[in-house]
Design goal:
Order of helices and strands of chain A: EHHEHEHEHEHEHEHEHH
Number of domains of chain B: 1
Radius of gyration of chain A: 18 Å
CATH architecture of chain A: Alpha-Beta Barrel
Number of strands of chain A: 8
Strand content of chain B: 5-15%
Oligomer: heterodimer
Distance between the termini of chain A: 13 Å
CATH topology of chain B: TIM Barrel
Number of strands of chain B: 10
CATH superfamily of chain A: Dihydropteroate synthase-like
CATH class of chain A: Alpha Beta
Largest interface: A-B, 10 and 15 residues
Number of helices of chain A: 10
CATH topology of chain A: TIM Barrel
Shape of chain A: globular
């Protein structure tokens, strides 16, 4: 599974403070720790408190690029913030994210194509969050069709079914999981699938357990990527074991160690 | 019709056996095995930089249980390992020799580590091809003999084996000290092959110096099982799993000449045809199938079988340099 580390986000106190104080070392430490624990890419979000996200995102991208060349996921709902991040980026980029709204698609799909970036697309629209699997599929199909129209490679598209908190939308969990599987059959080649994992445990009092249980189930439905906290060792262990059970890696007695050695 | 070509992210480690003067040894040349970026023989898909190589098996004692047909082809040479080694290189143009120290086994002569070290020294002086050096398979004796043999070949970048899951530490230490490569043996078990590679590399011997002995079966004796294990490892290696991305050594002669079909007398099975041909055919067919499944170094016994297999390799690789695929820099 492709793991995007979620910890460089201004909503966390340490990162918010580092952004305000322009403390590069703090950002770089967080980047390297996540990579050491298994992150294949790093999500970068200035957070809601950032007054200057357009300059902050460039500063974050540059700080990270000084210490690693892993892909960077530029995380913002504002296309101009993403565009600013792209200008600073030398590493590979994942654009996080577009929605099914035409005005967003018209800006971000060509932007991703132009920069050879991968693109995360949320199956939501201005009408709101989908209420069931059918609505998710409809939005996903809209996004895939738009990418095909604009000549963006569908295999670089990551569809997110929108994971809702377990304690808010328990009835939707099964639909969300099934969407992951069904997104894959929208087109050939298939789009990839992704979840922003931590939302599932929002407000529960057993966050790590809920996160890793959902992730292993999603893996069984064919999930390709996840944005998560790679420092949660139990979560990473569960993810590695799930992929082993799905026969994606060869078993050996030291399988956790072997995976981390790769 | 357009070929469907796969894009692989991983590759098999390339292992050099034998060190020339420039490389600190005394071999006339070294050989390279592995390094593949695609499945066996798919020349159009990606790079296959090295051909399979055949090594002749030479023992430190005269093998008493080899079938007559094998004994005939070496005659008196079997009684003198140095002459036997020399004969393989001079007469049959052996590219690599596999010296099996069977005589160190407590039940087959119990030769001392010192005797075996001296023998390795003599062979290295007489012939200038790269060596594979094997113990007798008795773990506790191998732990005495192989370090001595390894030291005698220090700097020659031999391929020494076999390390097994329950007995690898002494051998890894010796191989590290003397600059050799190691054979990691697993009993037709991909999970153990992977685990053993991890254990060995954790001792500081890099994965690029390991050759996997997957344990094979001859035609009719589990060949297809070995094939599937090798294929599984190769697919994982090409998909990026470095812990199984190693060349394979296959003990073809050892397995093929154990088969009843290779050695049974014609009097017993008249319909099977003359035994001098049968054993050779058994060894050739086993080798040919293993080349197709990714065997990189084939340890063989009968000179005629080796000749036929080398010819087969020539034919397989004849057009390899003319295919449209170009190795990107």
């Amino acid at each position: 599974m492709f793991i995007i580390g979620e910890l460089i986000n201004g909503m966390y106190a340490n990162i918010g403070k580092a952004i305000r104080e322009k403390n590069k070392a703090e950002i770089q430490k967080c980047a390297l720790e996540q990579i050491k624990c298994g992150a294949d890419a790093l999500d970068v979000n200035c957070g809601p408190a950032s007054k200057e996200p357009i300059t902050d995102i460039q500063w974050l991208v540059e700080a990270i690029q000084e210490v690693t060349d892993v892909p960077i996921s530029l995380d913002s709902s504002k296309p101009q913030v993403i565009e600013s991040g792209l200008k600073a980026a030398r590493n590979k980029v994942i654009i996080n994210s577009v929605t099914a709204d035409p005005d967003k698609l018209d800006i971000l799909v060509p932007m991703a194509k132009q920069h050879n970036a991968k693109l995360i697309a949320l199956t939501i629209s201005a009408k709101g969050i989908p209420k069931d699997k059918d609505q998710r599929l409809e939005l996903a199909a809209t996004i895939v069709a738009d990418c095909i129209d604009k000549g963006f490679p569908v295999e670089d598209l990551f569809l997110d079914p929108i994971v809702l908190p377990l304690n808010v939308a328990q009835a939707q969990m099964k639909d969300i999981l099934e969407s992951i599987h069904e997104f894959k059959i929208i087109s050939d080649p298939s789009p990839k699938t992704i979840v922003g994992l931590s939302n599932v445990s929002q407000g529960t009092n057993a966050r790590s357990l809920v996160n890793r249980t959902f992730l292993t189930m999603a893996a069984a439905y064919g999930l390709d990527a996840a944005i998560l906290d790679p420092l949660d060792k139990d979560l990473m262990d569960a993810q590695i074991t799930a992929e082993l059970i799905l026969n994606k890696h060869i078993y050996c007695d030291s399988f956790l160690y072997a995976y981390r050695k790769k | 019709m357009e070929l469907a070509l796969e894009k692989w992210s991983g590759s098999v480690a390339e292992v050099s056996v034998g060190a020339t003067k420039d490389e600190g040894g005394t071999r006339a040349k070294s050989i390279k095995i592995g390094g593949h970026k695609t499945l066996p023989l798919l020349f159009k898909e990606s790079a296959i930089p090295n051909r399979p190589v055949v090594a002749f098996e030479v023992w430190d004692i005269a093998p008493t249980e080899w079938p007559e047909e094998l004994i005939k082809s070496y005659g008196d040479k079997l009684k003198d390992p140095v002459a036997w080694a020399d004969f393989c290189v001079k007469e049959y143009k052996a590219q690599v020799l596999c010296i099996k120290l069977q005589g160190s086994h407590p039940d087959f002569g119990n030769k001392t580590p010192d005797e075996e070290a001296k023998l390795i020294g003599k062979i290295l002086k007489r012939v200038d091809v790269p060596l594979v050096i094997l113990g007798s398979g008795d773990d506790s004796k191998d732990n005495l003999v192989l370090p001595a043999a390894s030291e005698a070949a220090k700097g020659e970048r031999a391929l020494v084996g076999d390390a097994v899951q329950d007995n690898y530490k002494t051998l890894v230490a010796a191989v590290l000290a003397d600059g050799h490569n190691i054979i990691a043996e697993s009993p037709i078990d991909i999970n153990i092959a992977k685990q053993l590679n991890i254990l060995i590399s954790d001792m500081g011997l890099s994965l690029e110096r390991i050759v996997i002995n997957p344990t094979i079966g001859a035609l009719g004796y589990g060949l297809e099982y070995a094939y599937s294990i090798m294929e599984r490892a190769r697919l994982a290696a090409l998909s990026g799993d470095k812990t199984v991305a190693n060349p394979f050594v296959c003990f073809v002669g050892h397995e093929a000449w154990r088969a009843k079909e290779a050695k049974a007398k014609i009097a017993e099975f008249p319909s099977w045809g003359p035994e001098p041909e049968r054993g050779i055919i058994w060894e050739v067919i086993t080798a040919a199938a293993l080349i197709q499944s990714g065997g990189d170094l084939l340890i063989m016994r009968h000179p005629k079988a080796v000749e036929k297999v080398n010819k087969y390799i020539d034919e397989l690789f004849r057009d390899a340099s003319q295919v449209s695929y170009k190795v990107s820099p």
